[in-house]
Amino acid sequence: QVQLAESGGGLVQAGGSLRLSCATSGIILSVFSSNTMGWHRQAPGKERELVASISSGGHTEYADSVNGRFTLSKNNAKRTMYLEMNNLKAEDTGVYYCHVGTDYWGRGTQVTVSS
Description:
Strand content: over 45%
Radius of gyration: 13 Å
Helix content: under 10%
Mean pLDDT: 95
Low-confidence stretches: none
Order of helices and strands: EEEHEEEEEEEE
Distance between the termini: 40 Å
């Protein structure tokens, strides 16, 4: 059974930093390393939006709103993905979800940025 578990969320002041982790289990290395994966977030009253993604080849893409502040990385051997978030803003508040491909999603971790 494939499971994704996000961690690292919390309450932080504007300008602060957080590092989110997405630990996976039940995924073989070939599936983990060959799929595009990423992070989405959903703010209260808003639709879920893509924050960052990484292709199987390691190419990363970011939403304009986080470009230059967030960094996505992954460790294939550990089957874990990370999202380093710096200079956080109030508008970054939301539930952050990681995913592998389109079929596997975590349950989310809350990030709250106080202004």
